[in-house]
Write a structure and sequence with these properties.
The radius of gyration is 15 Å and the shape is elongated. Helix content is 89%, strand content 0%. With 63 residues, the chain is mostly helical. It has a single domain, classed as Up-down Bundle (F1FO ATP Synthase), CATH 1.20.20.
């Protein structure tokens, strides 16, 4: 691997980690405010996290 692709892969992983962390944190805040909506919030959180991960994997393969 060349140096620029390694740096690019690192940035992709960092970005995906930040994105998933923000999704999880926001979901926990929402669940704390409305515990009765736990199921809907969890489902939306998992779908959003999966999409972020999918985009990160696609970017890693392209890089």
């Amino acid at each position: 691997m060349e140096i620029p692709s390694i740096v690019g892969a690192g940035l992709i992983v960092i970005g995906a980690g930040i994105g998933i962390g923000r999704i999880g944190g926001s979901a926990m805040d929402a669940i704390a405010r409305q515990p009765e909506a736990y199921g809907k919030i969890q489902t939306a959180m998992l779908i959003a996290a999966a999409l972020v991960e999918g985009i990160a994997f696609a970017a890693l393969f392209v890089g």
